Amino acid sequence: MRLRPACPQCGSALTGELACPLHGAVQPCWRAVEASYDAFAEHLVLSRGLPTWLPWPLPPGWGVTDFGCVGGEGQVPRATFTTCTGLTPEDGGVTLTVVTEEPRVGLGAHLADVPHGDPGRAAWDQPPALRLRVGGASVPLWPVPVPRTGGDGDGDGDERTVLAGEAQGRWLWVVVSPAEAVLGLVDRASLGDAAALGPELLAVAFGKDASGG
């Protein structure tokens, strides 16, 4: 099996009853056992009706290293995510995760490692941090606070940048690591729906060594 079920809120493996040890019965996130073209094809079938956003065109040398869909197999899909990795001259190795989800799914918060179930609207009172081209539209994104990493107050949570907004009526999360890579990365690519790429997907690299890093 190329996709396996996990809890969308914490990533725990699910039992035969699709129950999470922490969150109980959940709609599973079908996540790639190993990122590959064949697994991605299965993912696109499960996620039909929801976009699977990729930075497109992919920057040279970049590849897809993880992806998943909440729902599917007879259920209406409620969220998708992709993770891409690659190298940039300014920041070295960079990881980008993009999540689109319906309210109260919790996948974006889990993958961003923040305590918010949904991004909330507190940040909407300030100007957006940046705008990103998503499916041809300009989408404003706001910063989501990232917890400090040190248990004793050390660390400043700057190992990643988390941004959130709305695209096509759903939450859109963008998680970039390292944090300072976000501006350069946004300058390089917009987001396109992988389901609409067709034969162009054949040229996409998959797997942990896809980026050559």
Can you offer a commentary on this structure?
The structure is a single chain. This protein has 213 residues and is mainly beta. It has one domain (35-206). It has helices at residues 37-46, 107-112, 182-188, and strands at residues 3-6, 19-20, 24-25, 29-32, 53-56, 63-72, 75-88, 92-101, 130-134, 137-143, 161-167, 170-177, 190-193, 205-206. The strands form 3 sheets. Strands 1, 4, 6, 7, 8, 9, 10, 11, 12 and 14 form a 10-stranded mixed beta sheet that branches. It has a two-stranded antiparallel sheet with strand order 2-3. A two-stranded antiparallel sheet has the order 5-13. The two termini are 27 Å apart. The relative contact order is 0.19. Residues 151-157 have low confidence and may be disordered.
Keywords:
3 helices, 213 residues, mainly beta, two-stranded antiparallel sheet, single chain, 39% strand
How are the SSEs placed, and which strands pair?
Elements: E1 3-6, E2 19-20, E3 24-25, E4 29-32, H1 37-46, E5 53-56, E6 63-72, E7 75-88, E8 92-101, H2 107-112, E9 130-134, E10 137-143, E11 161-167, E12 170-177, H3 182-188, E13 190-193, E14 205-206
Parallel strand pairs: 6-14
Antiparallel strand pairs: 1-4, 2-3, 4-6, 5-13, 6-7, 7-8, 8-12, 9-10, 10-11, 11-12
